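Before relying on records like the one below, remember that each one covers exactly one chain. Contacts with other chains, cofactors or solvent are not represented anywhere in the record.
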Amino acid sequence: MIPGMEPLPLPLEGITVVAVEQAVAAPFATRQLADLGARVIKVERIDGGDFARGYDTAAGGLASHFVWCNRGKESIALDLKDPRGLDVVRRLVADADVFVQNLAHGAAARLGLDAATLCAAHPRLVAVDISGYGASGPYADKRAYDMLVQCEAGLVSVTGTPELPVKAGIPAADIAAAMYAFSGALAALVRRGTTGSGGPVEVSMLDALAEWMGHPLHHAMHGGTAPARTGLAHAVIAPYDAYPTADGGRVLLSVQNDREWRRLAELVLERPELGTDPDFATNAARVARRERTDALVGKALGGLGADEAVLRLERAGVACARLRDVQQVAEHPQLAARERWREVGSPVGPLRALLPPITLPGGGEARMGDVPALGEHTEALLRAVGMADAEIAALRRDGVAA
């Protein structure tokens, strides 16, 4: 809180989101909306729900992807192939501010849940369509999974070693689409606030990740060649890599200019003459002699423990980092010192989760609600759209709701 200020509400309090979503792209987008105070109603299949629920059991018996992307939502399980199930969604949408879907190409249109159809019926609605490759063009009907889009967008071609291209270790295409869907929904809500009209928002995974390819893409288009794959090294800067330390660790450093090189030479390599040696004094010279440059740095850091190496680099004013594994990130001292961890409820009990990166001083903390069980809120939501006990019982009996 800011002293002297009245506490502000979360920015999306009062906003209702209905999402027919699965996997990562749409669920991660709507989780951002939920964290900022929106009510998010997640529509799932009756036969197992969002298929991301079945990816693994690593989070105390729940799927890690699902736990990450779905806290703070209400789950209703419906068969949308049955007109009665589809009618429930339409009733929910009638009272919603935002609708999000990432069904297979054409599926939402067949159900009448595409953005154009819904916005024509509900002019204030913001309706977000997330697709793999967009609504038109020769790739519109292609299946689009994260790894495939990473390949189509060229990310894999610039990631890895000279010998081996590799995909990113996180679902980069899904995350890119999710964040543009999130920001697109917010932008459309702002526009609605000034014009009174919502409207469609379209985001494709390929468009999103192609935008993130900015530097390599422009390098290739305007320079004629794509940056080389260099592992942890940098294609046009040296030294810039991870170097082994005496205790088995790895420390990454990045020398951004020749002043930093001179400090590194004097204070870490203990070879001040290298700062002015024509073979190393400029970045161009160091890149041309990358193996020799890396050997000099590697020899110096290889005689130090990781703690001592980081300390010397920081004293020299050289940017550096430890190469941490995922478990070490979970115990990162900076995240701990800034109290970034919370616990969220789930069907298997409390689970650790990071606060969202957006911090809004002056208001309440992000709303990090529970991870829902499949259909946990079905009955309450059916009652909320006006259904009586007999109707609800019939839906359950006929397998339309669960």
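The first helix runs from residue 25 to 35.
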